[in-house]
């Protein structure tokens, strides 16, 4: 068991921790803003299919 804890300690000492450009809160706020913009774009297309009147059905009985 002592060997396993020594290996874990040595492995953790050799790892350089990356520094993030921003803290975690700004990343979350940016993600919320991006998804909000995408939601507005999606919502703007919600009525596209209903812009035109449905096509009138042809009544073949009256054409003879």
Automatic annotation (TrEMBL):
Residue ranges crossing the lipid bilayer per the database entry: 27-48
Highest taxon of the lineage: Bacteria
Swiss-Prot/TrEMBL keywords: Membrane, Transmembrane, Transmembrane helix
Protein name (Swiss-Prot/TrEMBL): 4-hydroxybenzoate polyprenyltransferase
Lineage: Bacteria, Bacillati, Actinomycetota, Actinomycetes, Micrococcales
